[in-house]
Amino acid sequence: MSVDVLRLLSCYPDGRPYTREPEIEEALKELHTMSLDELMVRCQIDSPKVPGYVPSECIVHFLRQHAKDNRDARYNRFYRLFRRRVVKALPRAERQEGAKLLVDAAISDANDAAHARIDLLVTLDREGGRQLDFYEVHFNQAVALLRLSARRASARNARREVAIEHDPETGELPPLIERAAGSLDELDDNIFFDPIFRPRLLAAIESLQPEQKEVISMLMCHIPAEAKDPAQPSISAILGCDPRTVRNRRDSAVKNIRRHLGIGDVS
């Protein structure tokens, strides 16, 4: 099988087309001769120092190949591997100090923005775009640029650390903290992040009323519903409406998207 199943369409600013590094081309030639089970075992190796490590660019290649093949089961396996490599490339927001888990909220916010952006890129790429071309050529550099962009997006948030006490008996985080962690994302419904729904998600968004569509589109670009800093862009400021109106449109949009996907309203 040729390693050029997916031709890279993007070009550098000087007009040169994206090309994979020679070592990536050689790795792909070898990996394409393996069975799926053999390939998955190799892809589980996380450290580049371990023999048999599969470069992240190759994982992106196979992710996109199976998107084109419409093999959802295989696509989902490589999607999980891809997300794991992204997580590994992003800085950790937590650190342990004795019994306390310190969370750097600025890093956490930037990572959340990066994950939201990567989900959108993957969605658009699977719909026939070329958003992951650069990830297939220079994965680490692409994630670094993504991280920089996300950090800038959340730069106006004051750098802060929150001490979270573990339960001394169970070692678990308080339930209130765990629930709050999930509530930070304006789009916390799984349909926006589950690869199973991704191929139909954009069509569902296109079916929305214009005012709902624009709110969902901006939320997927990690623009907040409201902002305390008037200099920071927010959906309510852009649309000239009350934040409650934004949230009502968001909730209605999510219900309509779920209905379009055939999975009912949010419970």
From TrEMBL:
Origin, by domain of life? Answer: Bacteria
Q: In its UniProt entry, what is this protein called? A: Response regulator receiver protein
Q: Which organism is it from?
A: Novosphingobium fuchskuhlense
Its taxonomic path starts at:
Bacteria, Pseudomonadati, Pseudomonadota, Alphaproteobacteria, Sphingomonadales
